Structures are given as structure tokens and as C-alpha cells.
Amino acid sequence: MSVYPYIVAAWLLGAGLYGVMSSRNYVHLIICLTVMQASTYVLLLSVGYVSHGKAPIFADIPTNSTVVDPVVQALTLTDVVVEATVVALLLALVVQANKRFNTVDPDAMTRMRE
Asked: In which domain, by residue range, is 15 found?
């Protein structure tokens, strides 16, 4: 097993976290959150990787073959769907904030009146 996927996952997490902390634009913030989420894809797939593993469909391979764990792949697909939903919701909120305040800079937005 190689350590490189874990390094890539940590690098993506760090780059996304730096972008989130230094962001002055909501769209940039959402993109940085997406980069952070991509680190979870790399991490999940590297955890579930099996060298010379086959797909867990035993119709055409012997039952004692080395196979990959399908749960990790299912978790990654679920992660992709959840991330797409969250990004769509956040972008819809940014569009509404831009309509109301005419800016996507969080510091330029005024407080809501009571």
C-alpha cells in the first residue's frame, strides 16, 4: 500500500481549508468546500483499494479470489451525491444573497433589519 493517496488527500484538505479561511467571496468559499470534499473521495477510495482486487461479482471468478470492498465504493458514491446537493443549495443561497445585497462579499453585506 502506498502513502501517496493519503498525502494527496491531506494536501487537498489543506488547500481547501486555506481557501475557506482566506475567502472573501461566497462562490470562492463554495469551490474551496468542494475541494475539501474531494479529499474525502481520495481518502475513501485509498482505504478501500486492494492490490490486484477484482469486482465482487462471483459469477465469472473463483470464490477464493481477492475482491475489493463494495461498501467503500458505495460510500464514495453517496458522498458525491450529498456533496452535489449541498453545493446546489449553497449556490442557490448565494444567488438569493446576491439579489438582495448586490454582492457576494460577506463583509460588504449589511445586517438584516428587524
From this structure: 4-51+66-101
89 falls within a domain = yes
- Map residue 6 onto helix, strand or coil: helix
Task: Give the burial string for 18-43 (b: 16+ CB within 10 Å, else e).
Answer: ebbeebeebeebbbbbbbbbbbbbbb
How do the pLDDT tens digits run along the chain, 114 residues long? 689 999 999 999 999 999 999 999 999 999 999 999 999 999 998 998 888 888 777 787 787 888 888 898 899 999 999 999 999 999 999 999 999 888 898 888 876 554
Distance CA 18, CA 50 (A): 32
Residue 97 in domain: yes
What pTM did the predictor assign? 0.83
With respect to residue 23, please indicate whether it lies within any of the assigned structural domains. Answer: yes
